[in-house]
Amino acid sequence: MKIRENIAIAELTTMRLGGAARYVIDIEEDKDLAEAYKFAREQNLPTYILGGGSNVIGRDGGFNGAVLVNKLRGIYVIDSDEQSIRLCAKSGELLDDLVEYSVKLWNGESYGYSGIEALSKIPGTVGAMPVQNVGAYGQETKQVLHAVCVYDYQDNCFKHMMADELDLGYRHSVFNSGDGVGRYFISSVTLELNKTWLQPPFYTSLQTYLDEREITNFTPQVIRDAVAEIRASKLPNPAKEASAGSFFKNVYLDEAKAAEAAAKGIPVWEGGKIPSGWLIENAGLKGKEFYGMRVSDKAALVLINDHAASYADLAKARQAVIDAVEAKFGYRLEQEPMELGDA
């Protein structure tokens, strides 16, 4: 276990904002967790769990506590049968590395197991999957999640939790809501993937990509490559442009309100979803800059930190986007990334 002091949150997160964290503790082995939480208790400090930092916004006041940085590594096969395979991945692994691993496995007939190939190139770690019920292009974590292993801060022990205990929904789980916030450190996830390929109809942009190239061979590797190319063309790389990934949640409507929206020419996707990027773009904000934050000209649901000096700048930019969309369409957008630190 490695403990560092007075580390800027801006250095730990891809939006590159935020004051200093009093302590940063690198969690490299499961045994580090008990020691890290003991240290925090002895110092009477709050804790915050951080993965790759791509879905977290640092606040100006810093964090007078201990940030636990997840560096747990390892991916291995638990068991398999004629149709499926169970993989266990430590939570500090990069999500994209896990996807790559899954599409290169021999399944007895060909290479690749299906279930997470559409999650290719999503920044962040495996541990974020159950926290946010990570999903993209028609796949989401709850479709393949079998169980998680967690360290329970409240009970001071490791526990296994089955997927049906996690209350998984759109960007929602027991880990980011209610009493579960901060209680559990996810050590590993177990996924159940299968060797049956995805079949059309696909998510709209993925279907368009495949149709334009007359692709009819839908192996996990083919879908991975397609998604990777689509994301590269539409979404900024947080390693090159400071952002937190998707900044606004999509809007979900009940059946009646979805019908009203569709009648107005607003795109409504399966489940009553309106893409927030469409709302922002059609409010005339794509490429616009507010307080040093820029609405991406590739994907309007992404805010890029060009030269914002503080969280306060981001907050003003966020409000400008929310107000413009609400004035134009009547829908109030919600922020997707979590926040770390004090105002």
What do you see in this structure?
By secondary structure, the chain is α+β, with helices and mostly antiparallel strands. It folds into three domains: 2-70, Uridine Diphospho-n-acetylenolpyruvylglucosamine Reductase, domain 2; 75-194, Uridine Diphospho-n-acetylenolpyruvylglucosamine Reductase, domain 3 (2-Layer Sandwich); 243-340, Uridine Diphospho-n-acetylenolpyruvylglucosamine Reductase, domain 1 (Alpha-Beta Complex). 25% of the residues lie in helices and 27% in strands. The chain has eight helices and 19 strands. It has helices spanning 31-42, 95-103, 128-132, 204-212, 220-234, 255-263, 276-282, 311-329; strands at residues 2-8, 20-27, 47-50, 56-58, 63-70, 75-80, 84-90, 135-136, 139-140, 145-152, 157-162, 184-194, 243-246, 251-252, 273-274, 289-290, 293-295, 302-305, 338-340. The strands form six sheets. Strands 6-7-12-10-11 form a five-stranded antiparallel sheet, with helices on one face. A four-stranded mixed sheet has the order 1-2-5-3, with helices on one face. Helix 4 packs across helix 5. The mean pLDDT is 95.
